[in-house]
Amino acid sequence: MILMNNFQLEPEELKLEELSAVKQVLDSGWYILGPSLDKFEKEWSQQCGFKFSLGVGNGMDAIEIALRSAGIGVGDEVITTPMTAFASVLAIIRAGATPVLADIDIGTGLLSPESAQACITIKTRAILLVHLYGQMRDMEKWQILCQDNSLMLIEDCAQAHLSKYKDKYAGAFGLAGAYSFYPTKNLGCLGDGGMMVTNSAAIADKAMMLRNYGQSKRYYHDEIGLNSRLDEMQAGILSARLKWLPEFTKKRQEIAKKYLTQIKNPKINHLLPPQFEEAHVYHLYVITSQFRNELHDYLKGSEIQSLIHYPVPIHLQTPCKEILRDANGLANAEKHAETCLSIPCHPQMSADDVNKVISVLNKF
Ligand SMILES: *Cc1c(COP(=O)(O)O)cnc(C)c1O
To answer: Model pTM?
Structure first.
């Protein structure tokens, strides 16, 4: 079976580096908010050109902490997409704010600037822009839209590690960005982990308190915070894995290029190619087809795993039926949910695997 991810096939050298990182933490006798986290935060900042990186418990907390650090809470509306991980919207709700869903562009699956514009009210304070599948697109447009309407731009970078649009990495276009290190992300740890990034010292200071109960100095608390810290062991493992990330990212992009040029079947559509090669890191390679369910079963019959990201848009999820949304509806998101399919695209795939996926799809 060609799987969507296969960590067992990762290089032995990487596994040994991870074990050695764990041993180092064990020997240090210091397990929370220590030198391994400091080191990984600096490495991540350096790699992506951020002033501040703050390790937190997971990607969802990173979004909540970013929003709360920006002063967003009860009574504030935050515009985002219905085509995302549930965590994006859950984080807005957890911050006390009100999510408002705008529709997507059907060609990319990304939030539509026109629909987002239509969702702006006097209560709107921010846009949570999700770089879905690893794609960054039209970033100037989002910056201008936010500027013109006095909105804050917060980026959900959970699928976009090392995605680079012109001269900047995901997370550097607005007030703050949120990364997840959930195991299946492009940079994942061996459990839960996340990172909030920002170039603002004020946001970083507030986030530092919020991740640690709201504590300003030991045993003194200025905020109602969270307990959300990236632990030393995961930070050590992430430092080891970060060294491999550029190479792994390139591998994903090479596979995607082959898929884009060699998968040719009138029953299968590709999403729009990225505006710049580096602006898509292919956390997922997504195709669409009006025969999606048949395609999924057919791939399974040929020993190729595929998954749907995402089968149910947020506004059709049970607790979100009343969620605010574009008055024109969210038809593109609903259509995408019915037609999208993610096919294997990960750094441990062999050339044979890639060729098999292509030829099997071309015979559908
Ligand atoms: C994975 C993901 C999250 C949540 O990250 P966790 O670490 O699982 O909390 C948020 N947004 C998007 C787009 C994601 O893919």
So the answer is: 0.98
Mutate to test the pocket of ligand 1, among 155, 182, 196 (most ligand atoms within 8 A of CB): 182
Is the bond preceding 285 in cis, omega lying within 30 degrees of 0?
no
Q: How far is the CA of 124 from the centre of ligand 1 (A)?
A: 23
Distance CA 18, CA 14 (A): 6
Q: Which residues contact 143 (CB under 8 A, 6 or more apart)?
A: 153, 173, 174
Nearest CA to 171 out of 145, 148, 139, 213 is that of 139
Q: Compute, in angstroms, the gap from residue 363 CA to the centroid of ligand 1.
A: 34
Tell how strand 98-101 and strand 77-80 pair up. parallel
Q: How far apart are CA 337 and CA 227, in angstroms?
A: 34
Residue 63 CA: nearest ligand 1 atom is 10
Handedness of CA 126, 127, 128, 129 (dihedral sign): negative
Q: Return d(Cα 287, Cα 203) in angstroms, integer.
A: 38
Percent of the chain with pLDDT over 90: 100
From 4, 88, 129, 181, the mutation candidate for ligand 1 (largest count of ligand atoms within 8 A of CB) is 88
Give me Rg for the CA atoms of the chain.
20
pLDDT, one tens digit per residue, over 340-356 is: 999 999 999 999 999 99
Confidence (pLDDT) at 86: 98
Task: Name the CA dihedral angle for 198, 202, 206, 209, rounded to a multiple of 10 degrees.
Answer: 100
CA angle 297, 302, 342 (to 5 degrees): 55
Tokens 């040029």 map to which residue? 261
What spacing in Å lies between the alpha carbon of 91 and ligand 1's midpoint? Answer: 10
Give DSSP secondary structure letters for 95-115: TT-EEEEPPBPTTTSSBPHHH
